[in-house]
Design goal:
The complex is a heterodimer of chains A (about 425) and B (about 290). Chain A is α/β, with parallel strands linked by helices. Helices cover about 45% and strands about 10% of the residues of chain A. Chain A has three domains: about 210 residues, 3-Layer(aba) Sandwich (Rossmann fold), CATH 3.40.50.11540; about 80 residues, Ubiquitin-like (UB roll), CATH 3.10.20; about 90 residues, Up-down Bundle (de novo design (two linked rop proteins)). Chain B has a five-stranded mixed β-sheet with strand order 2-3-1-4-5, with helices on one face. Classes of the chains: A alpha/beta (about 425), B alpha+beta (about 290).
Chain lengths: ~425, ~290
C-alpha cells in the first residue's frame, strides 16, 4: 500500500525557486531525457502503455495507446500539442504545476515528442494564466540555453522546438479539436471526429493532444519504470493524481494522492469541513462531472470508481459545498457558465444551454413551476449526446444530477412561488 | 372568424427602395429614410494607420514562430491590444493585412474570444471570478461591491465597463470572469491577469482604491503589476528585454500556502511516493 499522499509531480514544489533550471537539475531534473533519448521511440510508447498512465485532462484515455496511434511514416510533420487551457470549473491543478515545476512539463514534452517523432511541440496555455506563460517561456529559454531543446539534443540527433502559445479566453478550447482550430488562428470550435488528430490534427498533420499533468508524468515513468508507477493507485487507474480540494473545507489545496483515494480520506487531510458545517454536495472532477452527496464519501476516486457511482473522475477537481449552499442556485450558476461558453456550433447546445439558463434563473427568482423541472430534464435529454463535443454533455450533468439528488429543493422553489401567487379575482377566468 | 395576421406576399417588396436590391443607377442616399444621415456612407474612409514599424516588426516575428502564418493571429490580436488597449477596427485591419486575411475573417476570430476587448479598456483590467465556487465563497458579493464602489448605488458599473477615462492613469475596467482556475484560493480576483487570491469585499475595495490612486499592489501570485497593455504584450509573447526586469517578473511569487499544502503535509508525516529503482526501458521487437 502506498502512503496517503504520494508526492511525485508535487515533490519539488516545496523547494525555493523550484521553477528555475538549476533547482530542477539539482533534483534529478533532465535525467529522464538522457535515458529516453538513448532508447527508441517504440520502447517509450511501450513503457507508457505498460505503466497504464491515463489522460489527466478528464477523459482518462490511456496515454500510451494514444501515442501509438501516431503513424510511423513522415509524409507530413508530426506535432505534439499540450492542452494547458485549464478552465473546467473547479479545476486548478495544471496552473500550480506549471508555475511550480514548468521544467517537468518541458522534459515530458521532449520525451513525448521523441516517442511520437515530432520536432515541433506547442503548449497552448489559457490566456488568463499569464504567470504560467511567463514561467514556461523562461523554462523554454533555459532549456534551449542548456542544450535540452533545439537541434541535436544532447548529441542524440533529435531536434525539438517548443512554442508557448497563449489562448484568449474560451473554455471550449480545452476540447482538443477546438484547441487545434484555435491554434490554427480560427474560432475555437470542435471538429467532427473521425478523422482523429492522430490522422489529421494540426494543419491536417498527425497530432497528439495531451494534458499537462499527463505529460509531466512521463519523466517520472521513464526514470522509475512502469511497475513503480503501478505501485500507486489501482489496477485500471494507476499512478498518483493531483486532487484539488476547494470550497467549504478547512484546508483547501493541492493533494497528490494515489488514484482511488476517497473523499473521506481527502477531507481528513484537508482538515474536515469548514467550521464543522456538514457536507451537502460535491463534484469529483469539475462541474461537468455529475455531483455527489454525503452518501458518496467512500467512493474510490479513480476512473472506474467514479463511473460506477454514476459520475466521472474528470479532472479530480473536488469542489465541496456545505449545507448553506442552494443546489438550484449552484446549478444555475454553472448553467450560466455553459451558456456563455457554448461555442455556438451545434444547435442543441447553443440553444439548449440558453433555455436551461433562463428556466433556472426563473426558478431561482421564485417564478418557477413544477413543470419547469420536467422541461429542464427534457431539454437536457435533447442536448446529451447530440452535439459534436462534450461541452453539451457537461452542461446537463449538474442539472440532471442536481435534480436526481435534490429534487425537493427545486420543488420547494416552486412551492414558495405558488404561495406567493395572489388568489385570482372572482370571475377572472371566463 | 377573426382575421389572422397578414401573410407577407412572396416576391420583391418595394425592391427599388432597398439598398441591397438597388442597381448602380439608383441614388441610394436619396432614397434613404434620412438622407442627411446617409450622406457620405459610400465614401472610402481609410482607416488610420496607427501601428508603427516596431509593431509591424513584432507582427512579423510572430508569424515566423509558426509553420503556418494564420496561427499567429491570436498572439497578434493580443499585440494590437497591447498598443491600443482594445481590438479596434484598425487593429483588425492591421492583423488582416499582416496575415493576408480578410477583415471579416479576423473579426470573426476577435469577437469569439472573451479576452479581446471591443471597447477601450482602463489602465487596469479587474476580473472577479463569479463562477459557482468562488461565488459561493463570496465572489458574487465582491463583484457587486466593486460594481457600486466603482460606479454608484444608483448606477453600478456594468460588465466590461470602465470607471474613469479609458487608457488614463487610474482607470479601471471591471468584468466578471468565469472560473479562473484558482479554486483552492477562492474567491479570486485578477488584475491584468495576475492573481489576487483569498479576497474579501474589504480587500477588493482596498485593491481598486490603490489602483485608482496610481499604486501597484503586489499580486499574491504573479509578476509586479504594470498595466493591461503591458500584460497583453506578454500574452502576445514579448517579454521584458532587460534581463533583470525579466527575471523579476518570472520569479514573482507563486508558492501559495494552498498550493503547497499536500506536499507539506506529506513532509510533516513522512509520507513519500514509493522509491524508484533505475529500471531499463522495456524491450520491444524491432519492426
Amino acid at each position: 500500500m502506498a502512503d496517503p499522499i504520494t508526492p511525485v509531480l508535487t515533490k519539488r514544489w516545496l523547494s525555493p525557486n523550484s521553477w528555475q533550471i538549476g533547482q530542477y537539475e539539482a533534483l534529478e531534473g533532465y535525467t529522464a531525457i538522457r535515458k529516453a533519448l538513448a532508447g527508441t521511440p517504440e520502447q517509450l510508447v511501450q513503457l507508457v502503455k505498460d505503466s497504464g498512465l491515463r489522460g489527466r485532462g478528464g477523459a482518462g484515455f490511456p496515454a500510451g495507446i494514444k501515442w501509438s496511434f501516431m503513424p510511423p511514416n513522415f509524409d507530413k510533420p508530426h506535432y505534439l500539442v499540450i492542452n494547458a487551457d485549464e478552465g473546467e470549473p473547479g479545476t486548478c491543478k495544471d496552473i500550480p504545476l506549471m508555475m511550480a515545476d514548468p521544467h517537468s512539463l518541458i522534459e515530458g514534452c521532449i520525451i513525448a515528442s521523441y516517442a511520437m517523432r515530432s520536432n515541433h511541440c506547442f503548449i497552448y496555455v489559457r490566456g488568463e494564466a499569464l504567470h504560467c506563460i511567463r514561467r514556461l517561456n523562461a523554462a523554454v529559454r533555459e532549456a534551449e540555453a542548456a542544450g535540452y531543446l533545439g537541434e541535436n539534443i544532447l548529441g542524440s540527433g533529435f531536434d525539438l522546438k517548443i512554442t508557448v502559445h497563449a489562448g484568449a479566453g474560451a473554455y471550449i478550447c480545452g476540447e482538443e479539436t477546438a484547441l487545434l482550430d484555435s491554434l490554427e488562428g480560427r474560432r475555437g470550435q470542435p471538429r467532427l471526429k473521425p478523422p482523429f488528430p492522430a490522422a489529421a490534427g494540426l494543419y491536417a498533420a498527425p497530432t497528439t493532444v495531451n494534458n499537462v499533468e499527463t505529460i509531466a508524468s512521463a519523466p517520472f515513468i521513464v526514470n522509475g519504470g512502469s511497475s513503480w508507477f503501478r505501485e500507486m493507485g489501482r489496477e485500471k487507474s494507476p499512478g498518483p493524481k493531483i486532487y484539488s480540494i476547494s470550497g467549504h473545507v478547512e484546508k483547501p489545496g493541492q493533494y497528490e494522492c494515489p488514484l482511488g483515494t476517497t473523499l473521506r480520506e481527502l477531507l481528513d487531510m484537508a482538515g474536515g469541513m469548514k467550521d464543522g458545517i456538514p457536507l451537502k454536495f460535491w463534484t469529483p472532477g469539475g462541474s461537468s462531472t455529475p455531483m455527489f452527496t454525503a452518501e458518496h464519501l467512500d467512493v474510490p476516486l479513480d476512473f472506474e470508481g467514479a463511473a460506477e457511482a454514476g459520475s466521472m473522475l474528470g479532472t479530480t477537481a473536488v469542489q465541496v459545498f456545505n449545507e448553506t449552499v442552494s443546489v438550484p442556485w449552484a446549478v444555475m450558476k454553472w448553467t450560466q457558465f455553459y451558456e456563455h461558453e457554448s461555442c455556438g456550433k451545434c444547435t442543441p447546445c447553443r440553444e439548449g444551454t440558453y433555455w436551461l439558463a433562463q428556466i433556472l434563473e426563473r426558478m431561482v427568482e421564485g417564478h418557477g413551476t413544477e413543470e419547469d423541472i420536467d422541461t429542464l430534464l427534457d431539454v437536457c435529454d435533447n442536448i446529451l449526446g447530440r452535439s459534436f463535443c462534450a461541452l453539451g454533455d457537461g452542461a446537463v450533468s449538474p442539472i440532471t444530477s442536481g435534480i436526481k439528488y435534490f429534487r425537493d429543493e427545486f420543488l420547494a422553489l416552486c412551492e414558495t412561488n405558488k404561495a406567493k401567487q395572489k388568489p385570482e379575482l372572482v370571475g377572472a377566468q371566463a | 372568424m377573426t382575421s389572422s395576421t397578414a401573410v407577407p406576399e412572396p416576391g420583391p417588396n418595394a425592391a427599388d427602395r432597398t439598398h441591397a436590391a438597388a442597381g448602380p443607377d439608383v441614388d441610394v442616399i436619396a432614397i434613404a429614410p434620412d438622407p442627411e444621415v446617409a450622406a457620405g456612407i459610400l465614401a472610402e474612409t481609410p482607416l488610420e494607420d496607427i501601428f508603427d514599424e516596431g509593431v509591424v516588426a513584432r507582427a512579423q516575428d510572430l508569424i515566423a514562430r509558426y509553420p503556418q502564418s494564420r496561427s499567429a493571429l491570436l498572439p497578434m490580436l493580443h499585440l494590437v491590444q497591447s498598443v491600443q488597449g482594445y481590438v479596434s477596427q484598425e487593429g483588425i485591419a492591421f492583423c488582416a493585412k499582416q496575415l493576408e486575411l480578410s477583415d471579416a475573417e479576423v473579426s470573426a476570430v476577435a469577437t469569439f474570444y472573451t479576452m479581446y476587448k471591443r471597447r477601450p479598456c482602463g489602465e487596469h483590467l479587474v476580473s472577479v471570478c463569479t463562477n459557482t465556487l468562488c461565488a459561493a465563497m463570496g465572489g458574487d458579493a465582491i463583484y457587486k461591491k466593486l460594481q457600486t464602489h466603482l460606479g454608484s448605488e444608483e448606477k453600478p458599473l456594468g460588465h466590461n465597463e470602465t470607471a474613469g477615462t479609458p487608457n488614463e492613469p487610474g482607470s479601471i475596467t471591471l468584468e466578471h470572469a468565469e472560473c479562473l482556475a484558482a479554486c483552492d484560493l477562492a474567491p479570486v480576483i485578477q488584475v491584468n491577469y495576475e492573481y489576487f487570491d483569498n479576497q474579501t469585499e474589504e480587500k477588493a475595495v482596498a485593491l481598486v482604491d490603490a489602483l485608482q490612486a496610481g499604486k501597484k499592489p503586489a499580486p499574491t501570485r504573479g509578476a509586479p503589476l504594470t498595466n493591461f497593455k503591458g500584460a497583453e504584450l506578454q500574452l502576445a509573447g514579448f517579454f521584458p528585454e532587460d534581463e533583470r526586469q525579466y527575471r523579476k517578473d518570472v520569479d514573482g511569487p507563486s508558492q501559495a500556502v494552498e498550493t503547497l499544502r499536500g506536499a507539506k503535509l506529506a513532509q510533516e508525516r513522512g509520507w513519500v511516493a514509493p522509491a524508484a529503482k533505475d529500471i531499463p526501458l522495456p524491450e520491444v521487437e524491432k519492426k
